Known about the structure:
The complex is a heterotetramer, with two copies of chain A (350 residues) and two copies of chain C (604 residues). Helix content of chain A is 30%, strand content 19%.
Amino acid sequence: MSYDKPKFHHPLLKKNKVGYIKTDYEGVISTLCAGCGHDSISGAIVQACYEISLEPHRLAKLSGIGCSSKTPTYFLSNSHGFNSVHGRMPSITTGANMANRDLIYLGVSGDGDTASIGMGQFVHAIRRNLNMVYIVMNNGCYGLTKGQDSATADFGSVSKAGSDNPYQAIDLAGLALELNATFVGRSFSGDKTQLVPMIKAAMAHPGFAFLDVISPCVTFNNNAGSTKSYSHVREHIESTSIFDFVPKEEEITIDYPEGESAELELFDGSKIQLSKLAPDWNPTDRFSAVNRLHASKARGQILTGLLYINTDSKDLHGKLNTVDKPLNKLTQEELCPGSEALEKVNASFR
Amino acid sequence: MSYDKPKFHHPLLKKNKVGYIKTDYEGVISTLCAGCGHDSISGAIVQACYEISLEPHRLAKLSGIGCSSKTPTYFLSNSHGFNSVHGRMPSITTGANMANRDLIYLGVSGDGDTASIGMGQFVHAIRRNLNMVYIVMNNGCYGLTKGQDSATADFGSVSKAGSDNPYQAIDLAGLALELNATFVGRSFSGDKTQLVPMIKAAMAHPGFAFLDVISPCVTFNNNAGSTKSYSHVREHIESTSIFDFVPKEEEITIDYPEGESAELELFDGSKIQLSKLAPDWNPTDRFSAVNRLHASKARGQILTGLLYINTDSKDLHGKLNTVDKPLNKLTQEELCPGSEALEKVNASFR
Amino acid sequence: MKQEVVVNDLVIRFSNVNGTGSASANEMFAKSIFRMGIPVTPKNIFPSNIQGLPTWYEVRVSEKGYLGRRDGIDLLVGVNPQTLKRDINSIRPGGYFVYDSSKKLHEEYIRADINYIGIPMIQLAMEHYAKPRLQQLLKNIIYVGAVVTLLDIELEVVKQVIAEQFEKKPKLIPANYQALELGVNYVKENLEYPLNIRLKRIDAVGDSIMIDGNTACALGAIYAGATLMAWYPITPSTSVAKAFETYCKKMRIDAETGKKKYAFVQAEDELAAIGMVIGGNWNGARSFTATSGAGVSLMNEFIGLSYFAEIPVVLINVERGGPSTGMPTRTQQADIISSAYASHGDTKHVLLFPSTPAECFEHTVKCFDLADRLQTTIMLISDLDLGMNNHMSPPLKWDDSQKYDLGKVLSAEDLEEMTEPFGRYLDVDGDAIPYRTIPGTHPTLGSFFTRGTSHDEYAKYSELPEVYLRNVDRLAQKWDTAKTLVPAPEFYQEESKNSIGLIFFGTTVYAAVEAMMMLKEEGIQLDAMRVKAFPFHQEVEDFIAAHEQLIVVEQNRDAQFRTLLINELELNPARLLSVLNYDGTPITAHHITKHIKNQLTATV
Amino acid sequence: MKQEVVVNDLVIRFSNVNGTGSASANEMFAKSIFRMGIPVTPKNIFPSNIQGLPTWYEVRVSEKGYLGRRDGIDLLVGVNPQTLKRDINSIRPGGYFVYDSSKKLHEEYIRADINYIGIPMIQLAMEHYAKPRLQQLLKNIIYVGAVVTLLDIELEVVKQVIAEQFEKKPKLIPANYQALELGVNYVKENLEYPLNIRLKRIDAVGDSIMIDGNTACALGAIYAGATLMAWYPITPSTSVAKAFETYCKKMRIDAETGKKKYAFVQAEDELAAIGMVIGGNWNGARSFTATSGAGVSLMNEFIGLSYFAEIPVVLINVERGGPSTGMPTRTQQADIISSAYASHGDTKHVLLFPSTPAECFEHTVKCFDLADRLQTTIMLISDLDLGMNNHMSPPLKWDDSQKYDLGKVLSAEDLEEMTEPFGRYLDVDGDAIPYRTIPGTHPTLGSFFTRGTSHDEYAKYSELPEVYLRNVDRLAQKWDTAKTLVPAPEFYQEESKNSIGLIFFGTTVYAAVEAMMMLKEEGIQLDAMRVKAFPFHQEVEDFIAAHEQLIVVEQNRDAQFRTLLINELELNPARLLSVLNYDGTPITAHHITKHIKNQLTATV
Ligand SMILES: Cc1ncc(C[n+]2csc(CCOP(=O)(O)OP(=O)(O)O)c2C)c(N)n1
Ligand SMILES: Cc1ncc(C[n+]2csc(CCOP(=O)(O)OP(=O)(O)O)c2C)c(N)n1
Ligand code: SF4
Ligand code: SF4
Ligand SMILES: [Mg+2]
Ligand SMILES: [Mg+2]
């Protein structure tokens, strides 16, 4: 059951450049547990889309199965959505992206959905540098099936039932780096200041943008001993940088200390503006990100922020060299070679 | 169709400690293409098993589907074998291993089998630290289906048909390291001196031992421009170390230069003896291996040899804390709780 | 609205919001009735979500022992504002609506033909408990107290059940008792009680137990000696795994070392789960998995491997509402064809259909014996209704003299004694079942190469047409052997007497038995058969042969079971009528009788 | 052993080792016969391996135009020592064995009832070519030269075919010509020729082409406007992908930019392949995949999603020998039931069964129209025989006035003009097919949420029984709509005249038509129908109704097509006899006639 929120449009609510107010980016009322991290991420998506003045119908939102994968109903109700099957969102997004290169594709997944059943598709979407934003709402457990450990649960993390996890966690951000993902970030559902600009930057990135967002499950994995609880994350979080996203032609407003700041221009003219908190880290050097991540992990810390960006890579359309016009807009005239050409084909088989 | 080789036992052929001669470790005659790298790896397996005096029935050999996955018929015909389905060898091996912890499990796979359809199972076998040897016969292509690029084909590598591969390669050894595999090595089918001791060490390792073995496909991927051809590999190979495996209670015979040599004792008392060729590399420091691999890759070189070993980790049985006796040997008496216990269960449901 | 007093025959429904602790309160309510010796079936109707959506708990009480769902709710406790309208409309005329009168009920909810009983639940809870979470939880116990009094349920029994429920957290007992009394006293002080519908202790449950089918399956697997369970979470089969782990921890720990005599592996997906089961059984350890819906679809490739390479697999499919993700928390019997003929190529698989938790136990044990004997996939086809709801069931039975049938496995000694060379796929005994060996059995004898490709009697790869034919024809013959090994059907008459035979299977039994009685009262006599397995036992054929007209009752849209009967027994479809129920709720006797009567009029 | 001269009616078999270049030599041989205007069918029987295993190439020549396989080999060229015995035994008495006489044939290979023709192939090759690889390759051309002469095939035609074959590597032509002459001259100088079996130019192929079904499917997809192919390599479907890419490179490159008007994605597995197809079609680009065997099994979950969420999918299944990995390089029609009812829950899928390459083309186009119109999975069920062998076929046809049927898709204008709110799953027209919108169509209208869970007419999630029922009942009704849209069957008589009707589909047509002629000659007259689609068209029902007895010919063990007929048309199984062939080789007319005669005697 889902409930449409009554949308009360206050005349004073500020319209963005494309004429929408913030509530236009919302979806139906969430049916997740009160306090679930996923809802905060939905909120950040709404915020980001509103702020960058996205026209909602220019985005398609896709997901697998899980509490996290339900969230696309809770934001952007003017966008087409697809709640598909468990672990297979990447392949559906690949097909959708092939059909129309002009839309923005936002994929939402869970750690169960991505790190277990969906591992293969995740890896290969990265390999193809599919132009999409891929958000994992990472709670270290299977929320919707009642709290089993997932593959991102940390070694030794204690479950609600009291048992220690004996397996090494899969670090999805580390994995994405190893696999040459062209944009890798990590954030925390509780840190909107970091998350909102990160989502904006991810949307501006013309390739695979991966966001691993720690998102506590209040019902099944927010207990003492869990390394994915609100309190544990708050206590162990650290950041690569102070981070902002500046849309094309907007002015940079924040002043960063000289020397530690960096400005990265993206494909569409927008910019990422950041002040490094880690001196040896360089956002465009993949191996420095790997190093930095490793160092944090060794200290038991959770490194968040932008980890790596490759501002110059070809997405799958580029690799395949497809035409600029979306394939789903090509007409029969443009596609069908016609009877004459077929006669030639026939002749070649005689 | 398969042909049993006539086994001519020359009286002088040397028996190993368990009374077998080398041909006892062979299988039926290979039906792979003449010159296929996979056959050399089969040969190395035969050699290694003979030299460590393995009783063939104490090993189970399993594979997926592909030319590579056919090889288990070509070695160890006194071992049980299982040529399963495409990409799913790891799960079958997991079940088999759970059933009997006392056997040695040798899994053979191809790069298509592992890096594409089998990616999820590969990742999770590593995550569980399943006690097995996992060999990928890596030719950068799908041999059995006639030469399509696989996911390990290098970026820019030229196919037989002449097209450049536009995708980044998945580096399976790098991936295994990122995923905390407890033994990671890389070798080349053409380098038996390195490969044979590496297989022996992998078999002695009480956890997941991964060997990425470059194995040229002479029919479909040995052309100029291919980075998985014999000539390319020969020209770009480099090694972490000079390497030997010394079974328990055997003497170390090779003398390595002081300072660069290391000796690693394995769980069963056997030893890995090596002389480092890379000074900054430490075989038991995972991150130094990652660094080393990265450095070679940056120079366009293929780093081979032992990359990393964790000599102190729990395999899946250890993590699950199962009994020492193989589960498949437990009798009904040991397993069935009996009618009295069931009566108590019934009572609890009244 | 003066009504007769009705004793021990009613349906009560609780309408709640999920994640508020109501399920456990409602369960205690049902358990108390059971303890009074009265047959009862609860059904938990929950959403595919964790918190905040509508959930219902329906309790049918039937002195006559009819345990199916029944239409017509006698009393509904409605505390979910989201569904108030719908809930009130679902009450039969003359029935009762128990609501939270802390706030006044809006006009639009007033029906003239039902009785309204207001209990100020949340008000009472707020008056007595400070913490919001406690208020929420104990509100449930308050309404239990009220309803218990209204229906004349023995308070001591309820208290006993509460005490047992909180055995491990005894500190919670007093608060629960207090809440219970709040409900009881409110009724006693403010309302007329008991109602005309009420309960009374009898002695009609015998030695029955109240248990869910999934727990019974898990216990069956433990008793059958399963040492590996590999699985992936999916509703409604997850609780098989949970119960397996729970009971293994009690029953399968080595006393000396504290180590486990089982391996319990949460796989990365369903493909891996069944792969592990294949590996485990190949290597001689009884291994199984449990799954539902999409999980079965994902296992298709491996099921074919099991069939063709002849490797035992035990697969418990707890069906849910399909297709696709469908209605994951609703029940159906709609995986019949996709299970029977799973996988590409010519394949057929053995299915067992338990009806009760006792049979879940017994059939799960049987699955392992059959899997080892037949060396193929055996599926236990359960459903959400059976698997996740508590059912009154005969107790679970184990005969200590019962020995596992491990099938045709050759030992080292067997191999040494053999005069002919070992052929893994050689039919030595004429039953089309070959002998197998377990890896590691013997240093030089008995090793073979398992493969999903065409192979000869000695497990060698072959593409020769005649070799292929020998193999698949033997597999077809093995199917005939299977027919002689599966459980025979159950009949509901001494001998067939009527021209019409009713056929059903699985959870339909509850409603079907009641329907037969209802029809009998109207003078319509039917013979009946409950099928327990596919392939069909000879007695299934005989029953069908003995009746002109058959009516097949099943819980899916496409009459899938009827298709199986027609296809495998070469029946004229004209002889088989269908009664179908597929809206996700368990079938009712009323539904069956109505459709049988329609069908019979239509065909006459 | 004096024999009559037989012209244009023979079967020649080449027995080779794979990976030695024989396939291309043998193909040129077959093509030359086709060029002489004589109907011919080659069948390549190859192993699941790249190099060194036995492979056969069988060429049937039939002036009457019978294009099925025929038993009884008239001439066998045997150059594979591994299979010599078997090969020699396969020759019909009085037939010819052409062998490499460079080495003397061993005594044990001598049969008294056949003729031996020795050609010193390898000796000739070694005398004329230095490189071993060249010797191996040209040895094949040498035997072609010999056989061409023995059978009186026009040498100029063969040379022309060779010239075309090496069009892009003209340097190779002289060596091939030379090798050809070596064979020709050896025969001319040393042997009697032509043989009693021989060929002669006629004019019996008309405007036919020689093409394999997979290439025709790929061309069909291009003509149908498919812009996304997502696939994973698997024999025997891989060549669909290969041909799609090849022809797209010729026909679908934007002339100005050199960019591609298609996306060709090799997926990481079959699950991903069909997922991409679902994504592409959801987003309004015609998308398809091709697979075989295990691939179809792996796609089960997604097929259910397509059915329930109503997303077009075109899936080409080139069947191979099952179950499991089975015989991947052999042919069968054994994925009928698993395709028709793929996926858990109540599901049914539309299948089309082409018989010829021309139909592969035409039906593939039809698949896209049907998928868009019906918004569900449409499977083209081909097989290895049709897909990978060259077949003489009518030319591919395209009518330029033919317009794609893109089904019920609402444009921005449509949405703005609508007076009622858009309901994605609302049946507005009474045909049970709802309207859909493509993402991005309109800023504020028409967006909806696609899901595999139960949903109402407006695509909202719902667990209500009545909502679920409305939806699945509509899907059942859509199935009835499908019946009116699929291709009608083909009949082989003006009107039904006989009491027995023959039913077949797909590649069985070749043998079936010949069988009917053979039976006619023996006085057994049958009516016949070739079914082209599932669900069954009304005319299929009518034909069946018009015949007392039906014989269903199919290439699988379990008579799967017969099951479909019985189940979907409610037929009495007693009316349907079966002729089955499932050893992996294409069915022969002889096999059909034999079994029909057996069946008829048995039932009389
Ligand atoms: C094929 C398949 N297997 C299992 C399930 C059951 N299932 C639903 S959600 C889920 C796990 C979700 O976990 P995660 O992706 O971490 O999401 P969360 O609920 O934690 O946000 C599972 C296993 C399913 N829907 N489909
Ligand atoms: C489910 C499934 N999909 C596809 C295939 C077809 N197939 C057989 S082998 C193979 C690829 C093998 O490549 P690789 O693993 O690299 O082995 P290689 O032959 O190169 O040694 C494929 C795709 C299959 N057998 N099963
Ligand atoms: S169960 Fe956990 S993940 Fe799911 S909605 Fe509740 S808090 Fe969120
Ligand atoms: S095709 Fe390639 S991989 Fe396969 S056997 Fe031949 S050389 Fe080896
Ligand atoms: Mg999760
Ligand atoms: Mg390969």
